[in-house]
Amino acid sequence: MHLLIAIVLVAVVVTILMSRQSAARSSESHGSPVAGVSRPRHPLAFISMGKMFLHEPEREPREIQSPHVQTMVDRMERSRQLHGWKQDTAFANSFANRRQQQSADDDLPLRATALRFLAPERVLYFLRDERVGGLFEYALDSGQERRLVHRQNLYFEDLSPSVDGTQLLCAQHASNGSANICLMNADGSGFRELTGGDTVDSAPAWVPDEPGQVLYQTSGLARGPHGHVIARGPASVHLLDTEKGSVTPVLEDPKFDFLQPRVSPDGQLLYLRRPYSVPQYGPSNIVVDTLMFPFRLLRALFHYLNFFSLMYTRKPLTSASGPMVEADLKEIVLKGMRVDAEAALRKGDSVHGVRSLVPKSWQLIRRNRQGQEQLLATHVSGFDMAADGTVYYSNGNGVFQLDADGVARVVLRDKLIAEIVVGPG
């Protein structure tokens, strides 16, 4: 009995200390703006923690508010008001009612997984939760929203409109872990798959002045005896001819991932390159797991007791808000790879004073028609190009404009930037 009490006390102390450290790190990462932040020359849109934002040259960043999401928020609020009388009663503490509340909370918020400009005042975006996904068109000037496609188990990423805005490429993810390149009309009609197989095909991009030519990245999947994905092969870049149905390899190397291919207005190929790594479980992992087992057990015990405290007394064992911040920052997925965001911020690698979520080995490369490569930037988690060839890239916590002389300037700082897109202008 005394041993159990001692374990609980140690778990509480450890959790409180960790939460305070996490909250301190969070406050540091959201401090005052970086000195020397410049305004972008082009409109920028980006996704941060599932929300969409717009940053125009003459305005401060603002959130793109989807009317569809707002309608769901209003409906949820009305439901809470209707059942508010159950608070602090036996009804609110029952397991059945708690499951209903948790299910309702899981419906919101819808998270944005893709965003793209169609015109200076029109954007496309895809919203989804665990069950339903939808493709929407939104007018930035009037705030009007049009639903194009909306159904269960729908999951789009990497939207890529054609130059004339009549067609749309995207990556459609399936429940078995695979993904295919798809083509549809801009209004959501005429949907068809361009690629297939047990692969992850994503990041499609039109080739300028080459009708029907599409670049995309692809990775093979390795599955276990029961069909679950156990590994993903190195990502390579392929060229798809949609008229002939032929596929030609462009960039392949078993030591590297080649990601997000884009062709600049002058015909050069830009892409991300990072070392390919296979998840492995070796002797070092066994040692770490053995040493960390007591601490993980204490943490699990604390959260178990904290759950019962919330269930029966509606009060947590600690009032610190750090664990929620910890959950937000602990692990995210960037370009198909899980990244320990907390560890990356703690390590302190930065680009022009903005801490990076990805290592230096994540590089932005430009390749000309003769095959000569040029390193443009390091610590790159994503990028996009304007119509005049200006390159913008992100390190996960900031956006940088790459000038013609190769000098990068900070134009935006935010938290956990998953995708950036450049608008016309």
Helix content: 25-40%
| Anisotropy-based shape | globular
Largest sheet: 5 strands, antiparallel
Beta-strand segment tally: 29
Short description:
With 425 residues, the protein is of the alpha+beta class.
Describe this structure in words.
25% of the residues lie in helices and 38% in strands. It is α+β, with helices and mostly antiparallel strands. Strands 12, 13, 14, 15 and 16 form a 5-stranded antiparallel β-sheet that branches. Strands 3-2-1-29 form a 4-stranded antiparallel β-sheet, with no helix packed on it. A 4-stranded antiparallel β-sheet has the order 4-5-6-7, with no helix packed on it. Strand 27 (398-402) and strand 28 form a beta hairpin. The longest helix has 31 residues, at 283-313. The radius of gyration is 24 Å and the shape is globular. The N and C termini lie far apart (69 Å).
Notable traits:
4-stranded antiparallel β-sheet, 5-stranded antiparallel β-sheet, about 425 residues, alpha+beta
